[in-house]
């Protein structure tokens, strides 16, 4: 079996507020392999976004270790790119093309004509070629998110980190963005680590789903998904089984790996 791209072992994460030291996750383990669409799913406050920030290199574990390509994660780097849910993650004074180009030039990945060509390649992939010279204030929320995804993918990172990227969209736009993300994955088979608290979104987007318990986040189960909300051996749909695992009072004793 291939070595994992991302290996998270026994990771406990904490952060300080004005009044408390908060334990966000407790001894979390998981592995992400190349071309995985790996979803971290759990209720609000379970530490899933904190976990993503740690993978991004913005927070050090107090216990355990995170390794990318066998190297311990100690700081941010261009091999990991984050896409947030906020629409205002673009530079408002730059056009769509300039926003994507800037990520390439600022990271010294590419410059000049090469950066412009790479930017346009990914802008076309998210179907925004006609808006390349538009400014962010001229775009809808869904279009801004497509620019953010194009910017992240243009960097061609080892892993794309997505923190509830569609949560602020209306239901129809959200579903269209989910479908577009899956089409992009079909085209390039990039590796994505995707955080959500939506069970239907996790089932649709992920090929592997990690379930975290309420605060502090601990692994309850890991499940495979075909992208369809299929019934398993017991006749229950995947979404129903996830619902029970996340919100039942009984702790989950073993990792479930059936589809």
Chart the SSEs and their pairings.
Layout: E1 6-16, E2 21-32, E3 37-41, H1 48-55, E4 63-68, E5 71-72, E6 80-83, H2 96-106, H3 112-125, H4 141-154, E7 159-163, H5 171-188, E8 192-196, H6 199-205, E9 208-212, E10 219-224, H7 238-247
Parallel strand pairs: 3-8, 3-9, 6-7, 7-8
Antiparallel strand pairs: 1-2, 1-4, 4-5, 9-10
Q: Level of helix content?
A: 25-40%
What profile does the largest beta sheet have? 6 strands, mixed
Q: Would you identify the regions where 5 or more consecutive residues have pLDDT less than 50?
A: 250-259
Q: Indicate the overall shape.
A: globular
Mean pLDDT: 91
Percent of residues in β-strands: 15-25%
User: How many DSSP-defined strands?
Assistant: 10
Radius of gyration of CA atoms, rounded to a whole number: 19 Å
Q: Helical stretch count?
A: 7
Helix and strand sequence: EEEHEEEHHHEHEHEEH
Helix/strand/pairing category: alpha/beta
Spatial gap, N to C terminus: 20 Å
**Which strand order does the major sheet show?**
6-7-8-3-9-10
Give an overview of the whole structure.
It is built from seven helices and ten strands. 32% of the residues lie in helices and 24% in strands. The longest helix is centred in the C-terminal third of the chain and has 18 residues, at 171-188. Helix 2 crosses helix 3 (112-125) and helix 3 (112-125) crosses helix 4. By secondary structure, it is an alpha/beta fold. Strands 6-7-8-3-9-10 form a six-stranded mixed β-sheet, sandwiched between helices. A four-stranded antiparallel β-sheet has the order 2-1-4-5, with helices on one face. Mean pLDDT is 91; it is low at 250-259. The two termini are 20 Å apart. Strand 1 (6-16) and strand 2 (21-32) form a beta hairpin.
């Amino acid at each position: 079996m291939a070595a994992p791209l991302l290996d998270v072992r026994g990771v406990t994460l904490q952060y300080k507020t004005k009044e408390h030291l908060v334990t966000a996750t407790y001894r979390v383990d998981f592995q992400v392999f190349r071309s995985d669409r790996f979803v971290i799913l759990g209720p609000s406050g379970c530490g899933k976004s904190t976990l993503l920030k740690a993978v991004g290199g913005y927070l050090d574990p107090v216990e355990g270790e995170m390794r990318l390509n066998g190297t311990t994660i100690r700081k941010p780097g261009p091999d990991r790119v984050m896409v947030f849910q906020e629409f205002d993650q673009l530079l408002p004074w730059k056009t769509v093309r300039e926003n994507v180009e800037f990520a390439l030039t600022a990271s010294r990945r590419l410059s000049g004509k090469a950066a412009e060509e790479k930017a346009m390649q990914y802008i076309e992939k998210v179907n925004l070629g006609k808006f390349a010279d538009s400014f962010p204030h001229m775009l809808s929320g869904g279009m801004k998110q497509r620019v953010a995804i194009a910017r992240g993918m243009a960097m061609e990172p080892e892993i794309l980190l997505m923190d509830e990227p569609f949560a602020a969209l209306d239901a129809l736009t959200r579903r269209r963005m989910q479908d577009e993300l899956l089409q992009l994955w079909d085209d390039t088979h990039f590796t994505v680590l995707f955080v959500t608290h939506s069970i239907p979104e996790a089932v649709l987007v992920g090929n592997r789903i990690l379930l975290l318990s309420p605060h502090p986040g601990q692994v309850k189960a890991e499940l495979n998904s075909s992208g369809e909300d299929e019934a398993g051996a017991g006749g229950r749909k995947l979404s129903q089984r996830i619902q029970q695992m996340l919100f039942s009072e009984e702790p989950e004793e073993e990792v479930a790996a059936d589809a």
